Give the backbone structure.
Amino acid sequence: MERHLLPEEIDLLLDGEVGFGTPPLKAHVRSCPACSSELESARALVRQLEHLPHIAPSPLFASRVMSRVQLFVPWHVALLDSVRGLIPQSRALRVAAAGIFASIAIVLTIVSVWAFSRIDAVMFTADLVLDRMRIAAFSALGSAVTAIFGDAAQPLLAGGALGLGTAALLVVVTGAAAAAMIRVAAVRARSR
Amino acid sequence: MALALDLRNLPDADVAALAKEGREPAFRELVRRYERPVFSLIFRMVRDRETAEDLAQDTFIKVLNNIDRYRPEFKLSSWLFKIANNVTIDHLRKRQLATVSLDGSPHAQTAAEAQATSLDVESRGESALEAMESRELGSAIELAIAKLRPEYRSCILLRHVEGRSYEEIAATLDLPLGTVKTYIHRARHELREALEDLRE
């Protein structure tokens, strides 16, 4: 090569390019003191740049960042975390818990099989229990209504209007409670 | 503690995936990994520690609050540097707009008018913060970097301080590959000249 290296050619050598065009450039550098000095000066600059240290921000930097980051845990992750939280940490406890759950599962299976084999008796008993519970509930409700509204409410009780009214009231109260819970959950998520 | 130790061994994409699940230790790990490189890049661009902290903080808040938009096929560090660079360039542009000439109004017709509209800046002693900054960025090479145009500065810092390839720098700064090569070539040339001037 008769001429000195062009700046782009110095860059090629500086970046460690290994293409077929570089051997003549390297050969020229070996024989040309001016280009060799030019390349060495460029390499010295790169070495200086590469030795520049990373500078640390203040020690409170991470805390300041974290205080302004919105952490949002998706519901499925929260659910999985809750389930994982119930699993014992030590192996021995995990084995014991598995034994207990297996025993409960076996007992429940046996009870279910027995119940299905005597489905008529089960249905009769369930019907009886539900009937008793309904009578007890209506009796308690009737006492409460009479205590609040006096004997004037007796015809309503007899007419069955109280049952419908109570059912409607229960639906409204349950709906309001569910809406309030959703609202509280949303506020908590936003505040996090 | 065990989770924090495990996180240190995970690649960026896995830590980002945990951050997407809202895991606070994953967010902290990402800040721990990149606070120094991001802060250094910004500090060398703006040369003011307080401003650099604010801009680095903005960068991390933007990245972490939008972590669900991160696509793992790209390098997380490139995304971080891209946002850091954008935040810094925006700041430098705004600062340039807000610059007031100390020599008086350019519309002044006479020396007296120029004198009347000029700003007097009191000479004051170097504060502790300034002394620290001058220690950190006071070497010849740092002073030479400070003289570069901002776009040359970010290219040369990403190439030689962060060790990024030309392709990564092009993707990070949204520049054509040829432009990145030109900027780095010119930056090296200007740095060598500036260092020679400083030596003289």
